[in-house]
Each structure stands twice: as C-alpha cells, then as structure tokens.
Amino acid sequence: MSNIKVTHADSGLIRARVVHSEQVTPHMRRVTLGGPDLKRLTARGFDQWVRLALPKSSETRFDNLADSFGVKGYVRFLTLPKATRPVIRNYTIREVRPDLPEVDIDFVCHGDEGFAGPWAREVGPGAEVAMIDQGCGWAPVPAPWQLLVADESGLPAIAGILRDLPRETTGHAFIELFDDADRQDCQAPAGVNVHWLTRQAHEDPGTLALRAVHELDFPDGAPYAFVVGEQALAAGVRRHLVQERGLPKTHVTFSGYWRRGKASPS
Ligand SMILES: Cc1cc2nc3c(=O)[nH]c(=O)nc-3n(C[C@H](O)[C@H](O)[C@H](O)COP(=O)(O)OP(=O)(O)OC[C@H]3O[C@@H](n4cnc5c(N)ncnc54)[C@H](O)[C@@H]3O)c2cc1C
C-alpha cells in the first residue's frame, strides 16, 4: 500500500554501469553507477527513487525496455521473453554527483532471498543496469513540524530528506534497524531529533518505530508525516496518525517498501 504519487520523468530509460561497490555498514551495500547517459538524469534530492532494471544473466537485454514504467510500460515489460528481460526493483538514489556523472544506491543486504539484495552484495564493476526516474515521494504540505519514520529499507530516503530539508525545519525522525551498526551519519537540521531504534531478532520489523510514534509527545500542530518501510509499519503508523491523532490523510505520505515473505512483483 502506498499513496506516493509516481511521476514519470521525461528522461525515460537511462542506462548505466556499475563503477564501484562498497560495504557502508554491515548490512548496507553502496553501489555506484556511472556512464554518460546519466547526464540526462535530473537530480531532485530528498527521496528521489527509480525503477531499477538489473541483469539476470549475460543474456539480459536493456535495449527493448519502455521509457516509462506506467501501466503500458509494465504490460510491455511482461510481454518480453523471461530469459532476456531484467529484474525490476524500486530503489532510492542516495547521492548524485552530476559532474561525473554518478549516482549511489544503498541496498539493504537482507540475506539470500530475492534478487536485488544478493545482486548488490556480489556485483562487480562493469555490470549493466537501467533506471527510470520516478520522482520524489516526499511531498510535504505546510505544517509546523515533520515526522519521518522508516526501517532500514527507508534509511536512504530519510537520510536524503534530512540532508535536503530547509535548515529551520523541526520535528522527529525515527529510523528502526535490525543491527545498531547500520547507523549512518545524517545531516539533519538542528531542530529535527533523530531517534535510532534497534529491534531484536524476535521482534517484527517496524514494531519499535510504531511503538515510538505511539509514545511520542507530539509538539503543537499537525505535522506532515512521511512513513516508509515494511508494509505493516507504513500502514500501522498511518492508521495511528489518521485514526488516533486526527491527522488529515493529506498530511501523511506512506509507502510499504517491502512485505515480509513476499517478493516484489517483477
Ligand atoms: C520507493 C521505494 C524506494 C526503495 N528504496 C530502497 C533503498 O534505497 N534501499 C533498499 O534496500 N530498499 C529500498 N526499497 C525496498 C526494496 O525495493 C525492497 O526491499 C525489494 O523487495 C528488494 O528486492 P529483492 O529482490 O532483494 O527482494 P524480493 O525478491 O522483493 O523479496 C524476496 C524476499 O526478501 C524479503 N525482503 C525484501 N526486502 C527486504 C528487506 N529490506 N529486509 C528484509 N527482507 C526483505 C521479502 O519479504 C521476500 O521474502 C524501496 C522500495 C520502494 C517502493
């Protein structure tokens, strides 16, 4: 579930290659993508995200993908032969260096399941990828303070938003991890209180962040809230904010970034 407004950028399909990859923290792999086609990417900051096409094998083709991943583009993708079409996943752009041009994407290494997480762990320089810019999910309404909530999959989004927020912004950011060593330095405005929470192995993803929002003594006025991460976290915080705190639905942007036990659709 999500109410993020997807914007299909004019840049269409952008092709790139892996330049470098490094372990940022124990469970976060940073993959740097580069190549001249990236000059066409408009850097939007905040939580700008992309549909990222990844190679399944040396047979994977990127030259026959649509320029947009709307309904038409998705249907076209499904008609492509399975043997040669890439895997598509959603990822946040962690950093853009337009002068080179390069982008960094931070992948949660969540084990051996799925495709993107294991791919990022193993990939070396030269691998081909493609991406379609989907814009930013963060779409604030005027509000006296901001509430940002995420698990580790939303850490790149929250870090980007904290980096790009006006410096006078106030509020709270809750970032739940499964390993405390996965914390990253965030360039948060001085008035935004960043709370790091670490769940235990027996706790469901999102449990601590959801509880922390329940227990938060809200500053005056209705905040703008941005809530992303495992589906139950995103839906649970939104429900709490709207039903129990009385926030207008327009004040809450939420997105289930992943679902326990369920692979992404493509
Ligand atoms: C707008 C948007 C931006 C996103 N940005 C990022 C980002 O910058 N970095 C990032 O790491 N993720 C991000 N995600 C989440 C990412 O798209 C999903 O985690 C995706 O499912 C990973 O694909 P996969 O091939 O590794 O696993 P899948 O094939 O989709 O799933 C396989 C199995 O792995 C499990 N799984 C998937 N993701 C996780 C996880 N994070 N933790 C634990 N188990 C998991 C599933 O429940 C399933 O059982 C974003 C999602 C959205 C919608």
Which CATH C-level class of the largest domain is it? Mainly Beta
Bound molecules: flavin-adenine dinucleotide
Q: Supply the CATH superfamily name of the largest domain.
A: Translation factors
Kindly, what is the distance between the CA atoms of the first and last residues, rounded to a whole number of angstroms? 16 Å
Radius of gyration: 18 Å
CATH topology of the largest domain: the name is Elongation Factor Tu (Ef-tu), domain 3
**What's the pLDDT, averaged over the residues?**
96
Keywords:
266 residues; alpha/beta; Elongation Factor Tu (Ef-tu), domain 3; Rossmann fold; 5 helices; 18% helix; globular; binds flavin-adenine dinucleotide
Notes on the structure:
With 266 residues, the protein is an alpha/beta fold. It has 2 domains: 13-133, Translation factors (Elongation Factor Tu (Ef-tu), domain 3), CATH 2.40.30; 146-258, Rossmann fold (3-Layer(aba) Sandwich). 18% of the residues lie in helices and 31% in strands. The protein is built from 5 helices and 12 strands. It has helices at 71-79, 116-122, 155-164, 207-215, 231-244, and strands at residues 13-25, 28-34, 49-54, 87-92, 95-97, 102-108, 128-133, 146-150, 170-177, 191-198, 224-230, 252-258. It has a 7-stranded antiparallel β-sheet. α4 (207-215) runs parallel beside α5 (231-244). It is globular. It binds flavin-adenine dinucleotide. Residues 49, 89-92, 106-108, 110, 113-117, 137, 153, 156, 255, 257-264 line the site of flavin-adenine dinucleotide (FAD).
Fold topology:
Elements lengths: L12 E13 L2 E7 L14 E6 L16 H9 L7 E6 L2 E3 L4 E7 L7 H7 L5 E6 L12 E5 L4 H10 L5 E8 L13 E8 L8 H9 L8 E7 H14 L7 E7 L8
Parallel strand pairs: 8-9, 8-11, 9-10, 11-12
Antiparallel strand pairs: 1-2, 1-7, 2-6, 3-4, 3-7, 5-6
Helix pairs in contact: 4-5
